[in-house]
Design brief:
By secondary structure, the chain is α+β, with helices and mostly antiparallel strands. It has helices at 23-31, 33-36, 132-157, and strands at residues 13-19, 45-46, 53-54, 62-68, 74-85, 89-96, 105-117, 120-128. Strand 3 (53-54) and strand 4 (62-68) form a beta hairpin. The longest helix has 26 residues, at 132-157. Belongs to the AHA1 family.
């Protein structure tokens, strides 16, 4: 696949991460509601499967709501697919209401590339632009989410 990732700026989150699972399985955990619900969101949240709707086509939606475990508050994300190249690339535009006091996110771009390494998958995630505070919270949220995903894949291997 040709590298289509645009330049990373200081207002973007850029993460490269490997998972102990084949690319097709990692893809499913991003594109199927029952799998996405099992890992998406920072440690202090859950993403109930009933809040997730995915229409996996360009122009389709990837919508969900994270629930704050302490308060029960919901933080919805309304997302539109721009580009889909199964199972190697997703690009989305996110619009969401106030995200835990950090303000509304509008026209936020999320790009995820899934690199095939046999029994492992490396992803590159590029998301932005953010304010400094939003950037830090988003990076932390992704890292916490990926720890959950690692645990799921570790359990599947045992």
């Amino acid at each position: 696949m040709t590298d289509i990732t645009p330049e990373v700026t200081d207002r973007d989150v850029y993460i490269t991460r490997s998972f102990n699972a084949p690319r097709e399985l990692v893809w499913k955990f991003w594109t199927q509601p029952e799998h996405l619900a099992s890992w998406f969101g920072p440690t202090e949240t859950t993403t109930p499967v009933e809040t997730i709707s995915i229409s996996l086509e360009e122009g389709g939606s990837w919508n969900l709501a994270m629930r704050d475990n302490a308060t029960g508050d919901l933080y919805p994300m309304n997302t539109r697919f721009v580009t889909i190249r199964e199972p190697e690339y997703l690009e989305m535009i996110i619009d969401s209401a106030d995200t835990n006091g950090l303000g509304t996110l509008e026209r936020l771009r999320l790009r995820v590339t899934f690199h095939d390494h046999g029994d492992k998958t490396r992803i590159t995630l590029h998301q932005g632009p953010f304010t400094d505070e939003q950037k830090q919270q988003t990076a932390t949220g992704w890292e916490q989410s990926f720890v959950k995903l690692d645990a799921i894949f570790a359990g599947a291997a045992s």
